[in-house]
Amino acid sequence: MASLALLTNTVVQPKEAPKLPAAWREPLNTLRLIALECRSAASADLFKACAMLSIKEDTARDAHARALLKCLRQAVYTRPVFFRPGVTDISFDEAWLMRAITAAQSGDADSLSFLIRSRVPKLYQRNIAFLIKGISEQLDQN
Questions:
Q1: Within 10 A of 126 (CB to CB), how many other CB atoms are there?
Q2: Per residue in 79-114, pLDDT tens?
C-alpha cells in the first residue's frame, strides 16, 4: 500500500521537444514545405517512384524529397510527423530523417544503415536509402 501511495504522489513532467539545430534549419524547412505540398497530393508507390528517378539523369531539385515524402508512410509503421516551416521544435520523424541525410552527406554508411534499419522494413530499406542519398546529394549541390 505504501508503494502505491508513492506512485500516485509522483508528478512526472513531460520532456521538452528537442530544438532544431541551426545547421538543419534551411534543409529541414525545405523538406517541411515539400511535406505540406505532398499532404494534398496522392501518395505514390515507393518502388515506382524509385524506378522513375533512377532512370533520369537530370531530376528536378526536389524530386527525391517529393518521392520520399509521398512514400514515407508506406515505408514506416506510423504516419510521419512534419511541423510547419519555421517551427523551432523538431519531431522524431524530422530528426530521424535529418540524421539520415547528415549520415549520407558525410559518407557514414554504418549510421545511415542503422537509421534505416531501425524504422524501415527490409522490403523498403534499399529504396529509402536511395531516396535519402539523392536528397543529400541535392543539398550538397546547393
A1: 13
A2: 889 898 888 888 999 999 999 999 999 999 999 999
> What is the spatial distance between Cα 35 and Cα 55, in angstroms, rounded to a whole number?
24
C-alpha cell at 46: 515507393
State the pLDDT at residue 53.
62
Q: How far apart are CA 124 and CA 117, in angstroms?
A: 10
C-alpha separations of 13 from 8, 16, 110 in Å: 14, 9, 35
Q: Are 18 and 83 in contact (CB under 8 A)?
A: no
Decide if 125 contacts 100 (C-beta within 8 A). Answer: no
23 three-class SS: helix
Q: Are 86 and 94 in contact (CB under 8 A)?
A: no
pLDDT grade, residue 47 (50/70/90)? low
